[in-house]
Amino acid sequence: MSSQDIPEENVPAERASDDHAHAEHGHGAVAVADEQNPFADPGLPPHEHRIQDIDERAAKRSERLVAMLFVLSMVATVGFIASYVAIPNDKSVFVFPLGHISALNFALGMTLGVALFAIGAGAVHWARTLMSDVEIADERHAIEAEPEVKAKVLADFKQGAKESALGRRKLIRNTMFGALALFPLSGVMLLRDLGPLPGTKLRHTLWSKGKLLVNMNTNEPLRPSDVAVGSLTFAKPEGLEVSDEDFQKEIAKSALMIIRLQPDNIKDKQELEWSYDGIVAFSKICTHVGCPISLYEQQTHHALCPCHQSTFDLSDGARVIFGPAGHALPQLRIGVNAEGYLEALSDFEVPVGPAFWERG
Questions:
Q1: Which of the pair, 107 or 142, is modelled with greater confidence?
Q2: Distance between CA atoms of 115 and 302, rounded to whole angstroms?
Q3: pLDDT per residue over 187-215, tens digit each?
Q4: 281: closest CA among 210, 213, 230, 203?
C-alpha cells in the first residue's frame, strides 16, 4: 500500500506532520542539472507508510512480539544459570546429528544463543515496525561542528527519541530493560569456576591408618611377598574403584609407587623408619606439574618423570637429583596388619603433587 492510497484521516496526526517535515528534506524532490551542478539529484523516493503507521492494532501486535522476544531472552538467561548449576559436567546426551555430546555444553550454548538472538531480533523488529522509517537527507558539512549543527544534532536526537516511542511503549521499554539487566548474569555465573577455594582438600588423600595397599593391576591387597626386590608396583587405597564417579580426582592424589630395596641401600633414616622390610611407598605424582611417574631404574633406584625428566632418588628420601621438580616425592608410612597385608599407618605428612601458593 503506497502513501497515495492511504486516506489522510487514517494517518496519525504526528505521522502526517513528520511526513510534511521530511518532505522539506527532499523526499520526492528532484534537482535539475545546470552549468554549476551538471549531475541532477534524483531525490528520495516517496515515503510509503507501513501497516503499523496507520493501524494501531498492528502496532500493538508488533509491540507484543518485541516484548515476547525480550521475555524469551530473560527466560533463556535464567535457563543458562539453571543449567550451569544443575547439570553435571560429566553428563552426556545424544543429539542428532552430532551424536553424544556434553549435556552441560549443549545447554549452555543453546540458552546463551537464544538469549542473544532474542535481544537482537527484538531490537531489529522494533526498529523495522515501530520506529520511524523515513529517510532524512542532509547536506555535507565540515568536520568541525558549528553551534547550529550541534543544536541540530540535539534536536534530531530528541526527535529520534520521540519517534522511538520508548516513553509511550512502556511494555517494550520495561521488557527490554529486564532482558538487558538479566543477560549479564550469564557472565557473572561463569566466575563461579574461580571458586570456591580448595580449602584443605589438596592437603589430604584417601590414605589413613589401616587402609590396605591394593595392587592397581590385580585389584588385590598386597602382601610383602608380592613385592620383589628391585620391582616397581603401583597401588591405590582400599575401597577406591575405577567405576567410582570421583575416581580420577582421588587417584590423582592417592596413587602410590611401591618399591622394594635392600634395607642396607636405603640412605635416608626417615625413609627406612617408614618402610617395611625394605618396602617403601612414595607418591606417584610428580612434584613439578603432577604427571604420573612410571619409569624406574633398578640399578640406581632412580625414578624418572616422562613429562619433563625430573629424576628422584628413591633410596634417599626420593629427593630431586635432576629436572624442574621443586621438592621430593612424599612418602607414605606403611606397615603390615594382623592378616599379613601391607597397610598405611597414616595419610601423607605433606601435600602430594606440585606446590601451590597456599601450601606455605
A1: 107
A2: 57
A3: 888 877 776 676 777 888 999 999 999 99
A4: 213
